[in-house]
Specification:
about 15% strand, 2-enoyl-CoA Hydratase, Chain A, domain 1, alpha/beta, 7-stranded mixed beta sheet, 2 domains
């Protein structure tokens, strides 16, 4: 009797993606995940995405014009974490992300045809950490919004200040906060979007200073991590502590928005604070002109700033 065996077919790499939520862990076609804005179709977990993917999801196609790309960090402290120098770490990271990559992308763009200034922290680049260049690009974005009288939108996903730059990175907290304060004085709106995770010096500075603060579902938001806090105060934290759902109840954020609906939410918010010829952007929301977009509900959770 002759036996015949069929050759086993090889599955192409990258065909399937596993949900990053440990409680789910289900597999789905990578194409399905991409078409669903990198949200798990089974449990709704919002997977982390890079800056370019976020730009594609939120902004008008081809409208993003980057600024500050010529700004690049330098290892002024000659820092080493014990395994490799900071300069070597930058080179290795850029080999994957691109020669001019950094943890922040900033630039001018349009959203539903309206001019805006947009910045985003990319967690895939050294944990989205804020160093001198990140602080400068955020400040440039705020200054561009001030000069063009346009709204500023920042998406923050970061582990905090960049330890490789020491006190220089901590100084960016004051620098970015001052830039945002000038926008508030000019009554120009700043919408802050918090994605998982948003912690450390970023969450303690510009990310927490939005006139409107949105967050993605399940995002970890806080300064120190839960384990650090528990070991410091020696008590058990409430369930869901530092998650977006916990913080919206406490008034820290205004609204939790599904990533798949974030663009529509931003368009509605911008229409709500759109300027009239004689009225600054933020004053139109107080005066009630123009009316909000159909079906739009004003954010809840925070008191008047």
């Amino acid at each position: 009797m002759a036996w015949s065996f069929r050759k086993k077919k090889e599955i192409p790499a990258g065909l399937w993606t596993k949900c990053a939520n440990d409680a789910c862990g289900k597999m789905a076609f990578s194409k399905t995940i991409t078409e669903n804005a990198n949200v798990c179709p089974d449990c709704g977990h919002h997977m982390r995405i890079d800056a370019k993917r976020r730009i594609d999801l939120l902004l008008d196609a081809g409208s993003f014009q980057p600024m500050g790309e010529d700004l690049q960090p330098s290892d002024v402290l000659r820092f080493s974490d014990g395994t490799e120098p900071y300069e070597a770490k930058l080179k290795r990271t850029r080999a994957k992300s691109g020669p001019t990559a950094e943890a922040c992308l900033a630039g001018k763009a349009t959203l539903a045809g309206k001019p805006i200034v947009f910045a985003i922290l990319d967690f895939s680049f050294l944990g989205g950490s804020m160093g001198v260049v990140v602080g400068e690009r955020i400040a440039l974005a705020a200054e561009a919004a001030l000069a063009s009288k346009a709204p500023l939108i920042i998406v923050s996903s970061s582990g905090g200040a960049r330890m490789h730059e020491g006190a220089l990175s901590l100084m960016q907290m004051a620098k970015t906060s001052a830039a945002i304060a000038r926008l508030r004085q000019a009554k120009l709106p700043f919408i802050s979007i918090l994605a998982d995770p948003c912690t450390g010096g970023v969450s303690a500075s510009f990310a927490a200073q939005g006139d409107i603060t949105l967050a993605e579902p399940g995002a970890l938001i806080g300064f120190a991590g839960p384990r650090v806090i528990e070991s410091t105060i020696r008590t058990t934290l409430p369930e869901g502590f530092q998650r977006a759902e916990f913080l919206v109840e406490k008034g820290f954020i205004d609204r939790i928005v599904d990533r798949r609906k974030m663009r529509d939410e931003l368009i509605a918010l911008l229409s709500f604070v759109s300027p009239t010829p004689d009225t600054p952007l933020l004053e139109t929301a107080v005066a009630g002109t123009p009316p909000p977009a159909a079906g739009f509900e004003p954010p809840k959770g925070k008191g008047k700033k």
